[in-house]
Amino acid sequence: MDPLTGHGPTQQDRADFEYALGRALADPAVRAALADDTARAARLRTLARQRTAEILAAAEPEYLAYSRLRGTAADAPGPAAEPGERLSGWFGALALVVPIVMGSAAAVFFLLGAVIGLSGPHAASADVLRTAAWSTVAAAVASALIGLLGLLFSAARQRAVPGEEPQHAQDLAAARTAWRTTLLHRGLIPFLLADLRTADPGH
Predict the structure, then answer these.
(1) CA-to-CA distance for 69 and 62, rounded, in angstroms?
(2) Would you say 187 and 71 are in contact if contact means Cβ atoms under 8 Å apart?
(3) What is the DSSP code (8-state) at residue 58?
(4) CA 123/CA 121 separation, integer angstroms
(5) Of 39, 150, 152, 174, which residue is 20 to 30 A from 6 by alpha carbon distance?
(6) pTM of the model
(7) Is the pLDDT of residue 7 over 80?
(8) The pLDDT of residue 43 is above 80
(9) Would you report the helix, strand and coil content of the chain in percent, each value rounded to 5?
(10) How far is the C-alpha of 26 from the C-alpha of 188, rounded, in Å?
(11) pLDDT tens-digit profile of 102-134?
(12) What does the alpha-carbon distance between residue 166 and residue 108 come to, in Å, rounded to a whole number?
């Protein structure tokens, strides 16, 4: 159980504790007290893992603030599609899909017009098909231009409106850093030094 929240610690919490423990053992004051005694360092590492509750209590306020922010991020519903995002989808279709379809239709009209134009009696029908082909080409170009302008407009709007997610991510990262820093300087380093002084009272 997590001594701060009453819930099981997450894998990230365990990794953060191990990271801070490694930094604490590498602290100059701790290293000087250890005097390169690797067996003693291993014993200290094991002891710190066994006394996790005591060490974590020194950083309780920071951990609770971090845990609240993390819980808010986990409970938040997924972002709903904004009107701008839906418009971007329509404009994307206008800029890409519609011109392709119309271009294909125009090619068919041109081909049929050319084939029918080879037979004299149906020259009028060939002219109609060629006119339809040019009209389709014009519509495809207009659709592509409208879609492209719409995509540019939507992109400009989305850049102009800052999102809330990046700010929450920054707050969460700052809270995690504050917890790990406090855990290191108010929890682990004092704990290790106190144990070393107790084991070696002459220093």
Answers:
(1) 11
(2) no
(3) G
(4) 6
(5) 174
(6) 0.54
(7) no
(8) yes
(9) 85, 0, 15
(10) 11
(11) 778 778 777 777 777 666 666 677 777 778 878
(12) 50
Single-letter residue type at 197: R
Do 55 and 188 contact (CB within 8 A), yes or no?
A: yes
Domain extents in the chain: 11-77+166-199, 84-161
Nearest to 187 by CA among 77, 75, 49, 93: 49
Q: What is the 3-state secondary structure (H, E, C) of 160-183?
A: HCCCCHHHHHHHHHHHHHHHHHHH
Alpha-carbon gap, residue 10 to 4, rounded angstroms: 12
List Cβ<8 Å contacts ≥24 apart for 155-160: 155/88, 157/84, 158/84
Residues 154-193, buried b or exposed e (16+ Cβ, 10 A)?
Answer: beeeeeeeeeeeeeeeeeeeebbebbbebbbbebbbebbb
List Cα–Cα distances, 28 to 34, 36, 193, in angstroms: 10, 11, 11
Residue with tokens 């820093």: 181
Start-to-end CA span in the chain (Å) = 36
Residues in the chain: 203
Number of neighbours of residue 18 by Cβ within 10 angstroms: 13
